[in-house]
Amino acid sequence: MFGIKECKKSSSFKRKIWQLSIQLTPQTSNRIYTQGLIDLGALICTPRNVQCDQCPLQLNCYAFKTHKQLELPLNTKKAKKIKKDKYFIWCKQNDNILLEKRNKKDVWFGLWCLPEVSEDDLKNINYRLKGKISHKFTHYELLGHVIEVNNLKVKSTDNSKYFRSTSSIALPTPIKKFIKTNLD
Ligand code: SF4
């Protein structure tokens, strides 16, 4: 009716409905008004069957005018997914791939992964893009840029090793898929 484009379960939606009800409820005969609303919601404007041609509110109804009777109010919160860019190094030595155990309290903590670097680390470095990884988490979408750095040589350590096969290693699924596709 009023075109509130927010999830009907959200507190913001409830607040707006509450404000509208305060504004619109008449000072007198409000029992008749309330019963009218109940009847309208039960018989004319039901969630699955709107009968706009019989509705006394049609002329002022936003949903009717914009043909959004079945879309409004929204059922889910429309949260915009944040996109996060991450940069991973592709470093091979004799057909073995370099992996690093993630120790930051961050995504994929404790799993082996292609070594991650920051965007700043890549300034003034000669590299080429090997491929991209996309993965959706609950609150954001990760866009992984896998890069190859010219003449990069990294020594193995306890948390940074070369592997020929990744089949028995605990890796994040999108990283595992990328390695499987790209490791010759
Ligand atoms: S015009 Fe249609 S959508 Fe609008 S209140 Fe009436 S029945 Fe509901």
From TrEMBL:
<feature type="domain" description="Adenine DNA glycosylase C-terminal">
    <location>
        <begin position="87"/>
        <end position="180"/>
    </location>
</feature>
<dbReference type="InterPro" id="IPR029119">
    <property type="entry name" value="MutY_C"/>
</dbReference>
<dbReference type="InterPro" id="IPR011257">
    <property type="entry name" value="DNA_glycosylase"/>
</dbReference>
<dbReference type="InterPro" id="IPR023170">
    <property type="entry name" value="HhH_base_excis_C"/>
</dbReference>
<dbReference type="GO" id="GO:0006284">
    <property type="term" value="P:base-excision repair"/>
</dbReference>
<dbReference type="GO" id="GO:0006298">
    <property type="term" value="P:mismatch repair"/>
</dbReference>
<keyword id="KW-0479">Metal-binding</keyword>
<dbReference type="GO" id="GO:0035485">
    <property type="term" value="F:adenine/guanine mispair binding"/>
</dbReference>
<comment type="similarity">
    <text>Belongs to the Nth/MutY family.</text>
</comment>
<dbReference type="InterPro" id="IPR044298">
    <property type="entry name" value="MIG/MutY"/>
</dbReference>
<comment type="function">
    <text>Adenine glycosylase active on G-A mispairs.</text>
</comment>
<keyword id="KW-0411">Iron-sulfur</keyword>
<keyword id="KW-0326">Glycosidase</keyword>
<protein>
    <recommendedName>
        <fullName>Adenine DNA glycosylase</fullName>
        <ecNumber>3.2.2.31</ecNumber>
    </recommendedName>
</protein>
<dbReference type="Pfam" id="PF14815">
    <property type="entry name" value="NUDIX_4"/>
</dbReference>
<keyword id="KW-0408">Iron</keyword>
<dbReference type="InterPro" id="IPR015797">
    <property type="entry name" value="NUDIX_hydrolase-like_dom_sf"/>
</dbReference>
<dbReference type="GO" id="GO:0046872">
    <property type="term" value="F:metal ion binding"/>
</dbReference>
<keyword id="KW-0004">4Fe-4S</keyword>
<keyword id="KW-0234">DNA repair</keyword>
<dbReference type="GO" id="GO:0000701">
    <property type="term" value="F:purine-specific mismatch base pair DNA N-glycosylase activity"/>
</dbReference>
<dbReference type="GO" id="GO:0051539">
    <property type="term" value="F:4 iron, 4 sulfur cluster binding"/>
</dbReference>
<keyword id="KW-0378">Hydrolase</keyword>
<dbReference type="GO" id="GO:0034039">
    <property type="term" value="F:8-oxo-7,8-dihydroguanine DNA N-glycosylase activity"/>
</dbReference>
<keyword id="KW-0227">DNA damage</keyword>
<dbReference type="GO" id="GO:0032357">
    <property type="term" value="F:oxidized purine DNA binding"/>
</dbReference>
